[in-house]
Specification:
alpha+beta; 36% helix
């Protein structure tokens, strides 16, 4: 009986955390009880504080299954964008994939998170584009033939079989940042160079032509978990990205 009580409590808390950002969004945007002030900075500060509290609640409730947690800063931005895209129906699954390109390519810097249960399903190595950097990704582009990675939010599409076997189509959702993903053939696929053995042989993970490539051993499981209108966010603390995106907050604007 005790186990059942704990499980129900966990499920209830998960549901609260999943929908709280939307509640905050609508209350602050439309409620007659919203702060009665003409000071826009004060309203933004209040909403940003509420959003931060919600994100930390979700973050602290994650079931890691012995995986490492992503960094809070990258998770915060990923979750903000996820909720906005989910509210608009752009993504429909409660699956969030976070890639943190601020980390070394030798680190497992991709997380697949089930937000319905607040559970980390997978943590994986993932490559960046060959012209984005060596061990660390430093340059990003939306330009065809740049062989650089693109930051920002994507919706996952359908699977297909290509030269790398099972692959997953991606739709870039941010104009001028990653909206050329389809024409650039930016997809998730498996690759031998995205493996621990490559790191041991070369001192760093291999690089792609811009695709977030993952180990062949994890390819099928990850692609099956995230296909079909789930959210993928590729993070880097890039000032140019933060100045252009409309899906995450920074010092000059908030989610709401």
């Amino acid at each position: 009986m005790a186990t059942l009580i704990i499980n129900h409590t966990t499920e209830r808390n998960s549901m609260i955390y999943r929908f709280m950002p939307l509640v905050v969004f609508f209350l602050l945007s439309f409620s007659t009880n919203a702060p009665k002030t003409n000071n826009v900075k004060e309203i933004v500060k209040t909403s940003t504080t509420n959003n931060a509290m919600v994100v930390e609640n979700v973050y602290n409730s994650l079931h890691t299954q012995n995986f490492a947690l992503p960094r809070l800063e990258s998770f915060k931005k990923a979750l903000e964008g996820f909720y906005l895209l989910k509210a608009k129906g752009v993504v429909t699954k409660d699956i969030l994939t976070l890639v943190d390109f601020s980390l070394s390519s030798n680190k497992k810097r991709m997380w697949v998170i089930d937000l319905a249960t607040n559970t980390i399903l997978y943590q994986s190595l993932v490559s960046h584009g060959r012209n984005s950097g060596d061990e660390f990704a430093e340059k990003f582009s939306n330009v065809p033939e740049s062989y650089q990675s693109s930051l920002g939010f994507y919706a996952t599409g359908n699977t297909y079989t290509g030269k790398h076997g099972m692959s997953l189509q991606l739709e870039g959702l941010e104009k001028g940042i990653n909206d050329r993903a389809k024409s650039r053939a930016i997809v998730i696929h498996g690759a031998d160079y995205a493996d621990e053995s490559f790191i041991k042989a070369h001192g760093r993970l291999g690089r792609s032509q811009g695709c977030p490539a993952i180990p062949m051993s994890m390819r099928d499981d990850i692609i099956k978990a995230i296909k079909g209108k789930s959210c993928l966010f590729i993070y880097h603390p890039s000032k140019s990205y933060e100045a252009s995106t409309k899906l995450v907050s920074n010092e000059s604007h908030s989610m709401v």
